[in-house]
Amino acid sequence: MITPAPDRLGLDEVYGALVGGQFRPAGPDTFDAVAPATGAHLAKISRGTAEDIDAAVAAARAAFPDWKALSYEERSALLVRFADALTEDAERLAAIDALDIGRRLFETRLDYRLAASQYRYFAGAVLTHEGMGRPMPGGYLVAKREPHGVCGQIIPWNVPAIMTSFKLAPALAAGNTVVLKPDENASLSTLEVAKIAAGIFPPGVVNIVPGTGEEAGAALTAHPGVDKLAFTGSTEVGRLVGRAAAERLVPATLELGGKSPNIVFPDIDDIDAVVDNVLFGALWHNGQACFGGTRLFVHDTVYDRLVPRLVEQAESLTIGGPFDETARLTCLVSEKQGRRVLEYIEIGKTEGAKLLSGGERVTVAGNEHGWFIEPTLFEATNDMRIAQEEIFGPVLCVIRWSDIDEVVRQANDTEYGLAAGLYTRDLKNALETADRLDAGSVWINSYANLVPGMPFGGYKNSGIGREYSHEALNMYSQLKAITVQYEVGEPWFAGA
Q1: pLDDT tens-digit map of 102-145
Q2: pLDDT above 70: percentage of residues in the chain
Q3: Catalytic positions, please?
Q4: How confident is the model at residue 496 (pLDDT cuts 50, 70, 90)?
């Protein structure tokens, strides 16, 4: 497939912020959206300021009372309409993402399927988002769910369609209004989605302000008019967001980094199937996934059979441009990210890890600007930096193990706890091991098995809170307790 020109995708020359149902003219400061594979200029995007954030928060606050007052059924119907409109435009939006962040079109198409399913899931889930009640002496107790108010949300660049849905769907379903800041490396599709939102939701319910983290992001997290914060990104920045929330005593949901273990037990019977799923878990999104299974623990008895097949399969993967239908890996999002990954590969060599495969930047015809990096496999030990630090690229550490207690200890021996995987035919062993792993998600025999309705979030430095599930509605609401006494009781101070 030929790389589409920006004008064929309906991109604007300049994008401003969506505030109160209208797009504001771009300010004097803009940044360029550039295709990472080709270096082509795609659009100019307004560099949001504190004033833009002020206006967006004010619009969200003005829209909140009426949005909150809508019934669950009315909000649900609008979310379904939004999901339908997103699905109708998914092919164009997927092409925009492939162009804007360099991932293959096959993947970005799947992103929009998952994104649409999130809006539909929460459209249904909110209809069962119930409070509680019970009789009490002389009356009744009611605890009802209410939205927080204005939610400030910040998303990363790796999967903008999915991240936008993770944030908007539960917040809107629960009755909140939103100010969302996309990442400056991947704002185009979110701003195009903003056009769809502006035609469906009342003005001010959804507000999108592009810009940098240091400016628009910092202004949003510190804004006194924001009632809840939600952030997906690095642990380092997540701490800053959490600190800002603590200063103002507002709740925060933080989905942060990961360095997830993936454990192969000796009783597996289909090595090729395991290898295929292992590479999927490590290399999906070109390795730019927080949940990636980037530490592979392989049992001694299958190590010498599995690892050669792993290397062979990795070396057979085609590297190509985002619109190359034969490609299995494409480019990283930026030169900065490419240099970071290559630096970690050199760190691995310096630490004494054995390079099994890959490790080089490659040039793809017609995409010479892009940072394409071979799938890279290291034989490593768990204490090495490449096995402890999040690389966010196509790098997999393979670690040999023989003792179950020791492999569980090593799997848990990291600051992160976002996800984990394991492969075994023994159900008892699978569930017992899953219970021992410090991870918010444990996938057995199918890594990254993301099922709508299953809570997603991490332990330890991988974050606070859960998304992707009914639990997210609880995160975007608070309980109000109301007691009803049938009759006025005896005065407490009678005869005092």
Answers
A1: 999 999 999 999 999 999 999 999 999 998 999 999 999 999 99
A2: 98
A3: 255, 290
A4: low
